[in-house]
Amino acid sequence: MHASVKPLSASCAGTPKLPADFEDRLEVIELLMNRGAQVAQLNPLKKNALFFIGDSRVAEILLGKAGKPDLEHALEAKDLEGCTALLSLLGSSVGSEIPSLLIDSGASLHAVDGDGRSTLVTAVWKNRTEIVREILRDHKVAAKEDHRKRNIWHHVTYTNTEKVLTDSTIDLLLSIDERIASVNQLDEKKRSSLHSSAIWGTTRIAKIILARSTASVHATEHHDKTPLHFAATYGHVEIADMLLRNRAAIDAQCYGNLTPLHMACGSGTDSVEMVNFLLKKGASVKSRSDDQMTPLHIAAAHGQVKIVNALLVPLNGADVNAVSEGGWTPLHLASCGQHTRHLDAPVGNFESGLKVSELKVTVDYVATVRALLAGHANINQTSRTLRTALHIAAEWGQEDIVKVLLEKKNIRFTAKDSAGNTPLLDAANSTQRGKIVPLLTPWTTHGVESLPSDIKTAAKSFDANIVDFQNSSGKIRRYRASVFDVLYRNHGSAGEEASVGSICQ
Fold first, then answer.
1. With 70 as the cut, is the pLDDT of residue 444 above it?
2. Domain 1-107 classification at class level
3. Where are the ANK repeats (predicted)?
4. Of 96, 11, 24, whose CA–CA distance to 52 is shortest?
5. Is 34 exposed, middle or buried (0-12, 13-18, 19+ CB in 10 A)?
6. Is this model's pTM higher than 0.70 or not?
């Protein structure tokens, strides 16, 4: 290469500037090639000139004038992402003519990128039908798996791929022998392409996969979830329907003995449609997880009031007072007032793939508590450690839920758990104690009504002399009142409210 000629890849990267007129640009490129420019010369990103081709005429000049060793090195070179020029161009927006020219010039169809994805995968993603046809002439490419053991069928299940695929490309994929690339191939998490389609909601692809006689609706992945578990988790009703029509087990249990209905009740999507669909198809509302949680427990723990209402429809028969392994009812879980792994059993998203921050449904724990109470939940049901829903709400600082619970006249206001703590003591340790403690103090209506009759009688039987230094008249006032009035009614004999500064003698 002449010392005065800059690497061609530097020109493609933006320096030096080329003439604006494209014909002039072609002339410059041809001039550079005639002067000995090296196509294989790399820029700092390890890309050579072939990576930047945007027009077939440029491709013809570069491929036609490059020396054989130079061209071979350029075609084999990989950038920082592990892509060859062919892989890069296949995944770009350029027309298929340019990648075809590289293939005709000897670009390897067996190249894979840094994640192990093949030329076939990349060509399918961009629906390059004719290139797919060319690639499939080599069965070894069709059989390739990426670093996560996913084959071509896994990769066609993604939403963006399904949108662009034409029937012609799909027909080519259907021509692949199952012995070369099976729809039942399991990736590193033991998920088949049907699992993947159920996750992404690619109905069209799921239908194609199910049309293959070998497709298994019963395949289980590393947490024993079937495709139906994933369809239920992500709310893909149409795919769930297809799976059930192909005899998928509606109450199949995965890790933790969770059924698809459990998954739908704890998903991060507004899945009431899925829940109603599964119930209509006969899913059991009485199924239990390893921790003895029913679907209603899961829905309540996630504040999914619509699902709670669906499960509580009398025809569906959910037990509103069902207890888990630790004695927790759905009301206990809803009273936490937040998505949590509280209590003695995990009630998270069960490896659904969603993080709490990604939940796409508005939860309403207050409404969920109301729905459970309307469904005749036992407000005083105690857990194994004798904790009530009021204990839980007070501990977790859920002021609005405490107020809802206190609307029930039969609530055990001063119930003690196995450690001797009342809801008031739990509230005192809460970060929201300033708001909740006043709701649970002994002189509230609930506090007075919860007093044993013998204590009320005794308190009313003894009088106390009261000296009030802070009454509204500004004068010291003395009067007598029963101990009951002093402690629980907090007013004087004349009906005036006594202040906190009153002194009992």
1. no
2. mainly alpha
3. 223-255, 256-290, 291-325, 385-408
4. 11
5. exposed
6. yes
